[in-house]
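[audit] Reproducing an earlier prediction to check determinism. Same input, same settings, fresh worker. If the C-alpha cells differ from the archived copy the diff job will pick it up downstream; this log only records the rerun itself.
[audit] input (131 residues):
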Amino acid sequence: MWINTFESETTTGFPHLITFYEPLPTSAPWEAYPYCCYIRTVIFYKPPFPGNLEIIDQIETQWDLLGERYTDQIEGWAALAPFVYHEGQVYELCSGQVIWRNGQWVMKRGSRRVREDDRRWPFITVPEGVE
C-alpha cells in the first residue's frame, strides 16, 4: 500500500472518487508525446509522432496499477491491488493517464474508496505511523 504524498482532488458530486496527480521527473516539453508501457515506464517522444521515434526522455512512475500483494492467500493476480492510503481512507487506483498540468507532466490517476463491505478488508493493513 502506498501512502499518498501527491496533490489530489475529489470528484465533484462523488466523494468516494478521488484523483491523484503524480509529478513526473522529466524535462520533456509540452509538445512531447508521452507513451506508457511496461508497468511503470513513460517514454516521451519528440514530435511529430508517429513517424519520427526520437526519444526525448524515459522515466519510471512511483505507483503502478499492478499494486502490491495484499494477502498471502493464493488468489493469483487478484491478490495484487494498487491501494493508496489518503487522509484516513483506503483507495484503489483504477486508471492512469499522462497529462500536461500546471506547466509540468503528471500521471493523473483516478481512484475509488474501498468500501467497508469489500471482501478484501480482512487482509488490508493500514501502514503504521500514519494518521
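[audit] rerun output stored. Observation attached for the diff report: The CA atoms of residues 65 and 82 lie 6 Å apart.
[audit] end
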